[in-house]
Amino acid sequence: MSKYYLTTPIYYVNAPPHIGHAYTTIAADAIKRLKRIQGFEPVVLTTGTDEHGQKIERAAAAANKSPQKFTDLISNEFRQQWKTLDLQTDRFQRTTDPKHAKVVQDLFDRCVKSGYIYKSQYTGEYCVSCEAYVTDAKPGDPCPDCGRPTETVTEENFYFKLSAFGDRLLKFYEDQPDFIQPESRRNEVIAFVKQGLKDVSMSRTTIKWGIPVANEAPHVFYVWFDALSTYMSAVDGEGLWPADLHLIGKEILRFHAVYWPAFLWAADLPLPKKLFAHGWLLFENDKMSKSKGNMVRATPIKEALGADALRYYLLREVVFGQDGNFSYEALVQRYNSDLANGLGNLSSRTLALIHQNFGGKIPAGPGDAAIAEASKAAVDAAANAYERLEFSKALEAIWGFIGALDRFIVERAPWNLAKSGDTAKLADTLYTAAEALRIVTALVYPVIPESAAKIWAQLGFRTPLDAIRTADLAWGKLAEGQEIEPATGVFPRADTKLMIEKMKEGEAAELIRQQTLMGAKVEAKTADNSSHISIDDFIKIDLRVGEVKSASAVKGADKLLHLQVDIGEPQPRSIVAGIALAYKPEALVGRKVVIVANLAPRKLRGLESQGMIVAASLEGGNPVLASFLEDVPIGARLK
Ligand code: MSP
What we know:
The chain is an alpha/beta fold and 639 residues long.
């Protein structure tokens, strides 16, 4: 089978990633998984970071770092983000990588050779934020794309004869109507090209932070030429070019649909097969921006509710291609209604009934004919929608089928069949439910891979879900006698209010972490604006030695323990601590710990927490409790 090569944009490293970047990369990851199911081999996904240009140079200066140090730091944040979200990115290409510079230069040389590059003087308005010249603007006019004021620049540049490609582009869009998707975006591009194209600058001399044009100091390559070439440099020499899909946000479509094909034609190289420009993710119906302070990050959502909840929400709630809204409320609602109640219920109910009635072995098929028919219809509808990247439609079709299954189970009432001893009908009912669950699990896998793999394993499959192919989605493939695993809840129900609180708390912490990383002195906001505190400040904190009297797990919170700690008061303190991953409750009893005794009490999971345990918090690791080498009496104060 043939290869499938897809890409995300190469993200700017002027700031760490937020949910908008995660949105594109999550969608790309889902497409990658889909293409594997369809049998493409290999399926390769490139992402990376766009690290040159004035915008980055200025961000580095603002953070008091050299451009290289700064880009190393932020690029790593993106790399980590995809790891944290378990995204299957295969190549992470940085534009500061020497291997990339070579490809950019080669591409440029090919364009020079074919006569599409010339040198000329330019004076005009430039938008630093978009890294683009703005034509017909007066000094200081706002950029038509981002609204920020433009800056006047005069320089001698290399130019690319984009103006020569207008007709060829229009013919190409007509001959390959699928090249730009969705359709509405294609029309915008056609209208733009019809207005006539101006030549584009390929180099800059006023910027140092860029890839030097060979033998042409002080010219460095124009950032968009540099950035677009990444799609090729990431897979240089691997035979994967041309890309089958560039997945991008709508605001950068013009660069991909107009500039990029022209550059490639000039260089006599094959064009990518398809561009898909998705819409913008808004926060509570407003554009997300750093200045508005309404940005959301993905990591705290993953930590609170799981990566699959976020993936499902983004791909179900937002029509792919259109703008969509993010809200914490809607996220938790979707999670509870579709995942916990919908798929989660179907799965635990089916597995539990098979355990109760058939000793944990899949009963004999072939299953109900009408459901088999409905399954085929759902598989077809989902496959068609997936193929057009209509994720929300595909998921709607799958959840429609889950609804039909729920009704089927209620109508058949297997609990009554068990009572009346109608074993044949009971077997048929539960085979139907299990086989349908198998198919649903495979269908949802590209969108919620982690949870789907859990259900898959509970259904008794030993082979990874990743190995599933289209042909496996046919009805009747589930073998009689297959031993299933104990059913454990895959989507525990979330308390909406608590969950939102938890995500918002996580978001606030993540924001501070990112800001600190960017060099901001976030915690230094004391009265005299220095990072020092006085002894009087320190004395306000009542640190005490306590002894753990009892410890127990907190229901529904795998990180929390509920402790009773004696600090020499008439009653021990009730303290809820996030140390369950590091300490077993029984290992803590009798241990001396340090607690902050005068922290305002608060409720966590319905339990009162009257203080905080002091522990070393290791980045990405388990907490380690503060303790003493010598014996210390209960209630002693730390000063
Ligand atoms: N560096 C260029 C792209 C070069 S590609 C050869 C760039 N970088 S960016 O960091 O600004 O990333 C833009 C992309 O991030 C968007 O095209 C989109 O894929 C994603 N998104 C960033 N914020 C977004 C939203 N709020 N909503 C949806 N996607 C967003 O442009």
